[in-house]
Design brief:
The protein has about 375 residues and is mainly alpha-helical. It is built from 15 helices and no strands. Pathway: Protein modification; protein ubiquitination.
């Protein structure tokens, strides 16, 4: 039986072609997929790092056709390899991302691009990249389960599962370069929506999903994952700052031009819109800080005006408006206590006025008394 070397070059030629098909969005049937899986499996299990045995290329591509091929394993200690193959996969991902930046992602860094163009391009390329990476991770699963797992177990901080590697390289090569532009485009769209425009919310939800996914895999695989740290640092902080700035201006202008009762209705509307915004395209973890920020701007900053209006509404028996205001502050114990104090003062005053009205008639008329 003739032995021919199972070389990395032969394996990589086939694997590289398969990866190119995947990233090119070309259709891949089950047989093609399994051939690539078997290729990685054969290389990882049948080649020693120090002693590569010979297998014809035809046997690699058609693993069942091995009647004339014999593969001799080395000791179990040497039976799993992957360093060279992993390095080539990593280099392929890096080169692919560099090509994306210089070609398809140019719209993101182009100063003349609209917010929609920037976000549409970024999300389209991210989703294509991540889908392709999952496919590649699938047929490299044997590499993940054995060589990668062992390297991580030995404390190697720069070795990751193939999918995680793809995510990390996107973060380092694409996200770190374009994140500020993408975030500002998101904030511009949200501002336009607050001003009454209809926007494509899918662009924003796509960016949120991207930021969360990028945070799941830590840079150092020995450290615990904090999935939302990129989302919060890159988007949520800026979003909350923009929210406060936008509503500080709007609330001051609205109060100058409208009565307080209409302002209270405006607060209700804006809070509903912000909660919907969280449900439609933001991460749910944002809701608490978002609503707290809005309430601080809408209510706390204008509390003296609202508290004074509460007393007016009591005197005018505006029950619906009173209910609206109380509902808005019902979870703020200090504000509720102040409203209750005003209510008790009002009740006491009304009682004294009612008594004073009948004092003189009562003194002269025992029946009234």
């Amino acid at each position: 039986m003739v032995q021919q070397q199972l070389s990395l070059e032969v394996v990589w030629d086939t694997l590289e072609e398969g990866m190119g098909s995947v990233f090119g969005q070309q259709q891949m049937n089950k047989k093609q997929y399994m051939n690539l899986y078997t290729l990685v499996y054969n290389y990882c299990t049948n080649v020693s790092a120090s002693n590569h045995f010979n297998v014809p290329r035809a046997a690699i591509l058609n693993p069942r056709n091995t009647s004339r091929t014999k593969i001799v394993r080395t000791n179990e200690h040497d039976s799993f390899v992957g360093q060279d193959l992993y390095t080539k996969i990593r280099s392929y991902f890096s080169l692919h991302l560099e090509c994306l930046l210089s070609d398809k992602l140019t719209a993101v860094s182009n100063p003349g691009s609209s917010s929609e163009e920037i976000l549409q391009t970024y999300i389209r390329e991210w989703e294509d990249f991540i889908f392709s990476s999952k496919v590649i991770d699938g047929f490299c699963s044997y590499l993940n389960k054995h060589w990668v797992k062992r390297q991580i177990g030995e404390g190697k901080t720069e070795v990751f599962d193939v999918y995680d590697l793809a995510v990390i390289l996107w973060r380092r090569k694409v996200f770190n370069l374009l994140a500020d532009v993408v975030t500002q485009s998101v904030l511009k769209l949200i501002k336009r929506e607050r001003q009454g425009e209809t926007i494509c919310t899918r662009y924003i939800s796509g960016v949120v999903s991207n930021y969360v996914e990028l945070g799941i895999t830590p840079e150092d695989n020995l450290k615990p994952s904090t999935p939302l740290h990129i989302y919060k640092r890159q988007l949520q902080v800026a979003f909350i700052e923009e929210t406060e700035s936008f509503y500080v201006s709007e609330s001051a202008t609205f109060l100058q031009q409208n009565p307080v009762t209409e302002y209270i209705k405006r607060i209700e509307l804006r809070l509903r819109e912000e909660r919907k915004r969280v449900n439609v395209y933001l991460n749910t973890s944002t809701e608490e800080v978002l609503i707290a920020t809005c309430e601080n701007v809408f209510i706390i900053k204008h509390w003296d005006r609202l508290a004074n209006e509460f007393r007016v509404m009591l005197r005018q028996d505006q029950t619906e408006d009173l209910a609206r205001l109380f509902s808005l502050v019902s979870h703020h114990n200090i504000l509720v206590a102040e409203l209750k104090e005003s209510l008790l003062e009002h009740i006491s005053q009304q009682g004294h006025e009612a008594i004073n009205k009948v004092v003189e008639p009562a003194l002269s008329d025992p029946k009234v008394y």
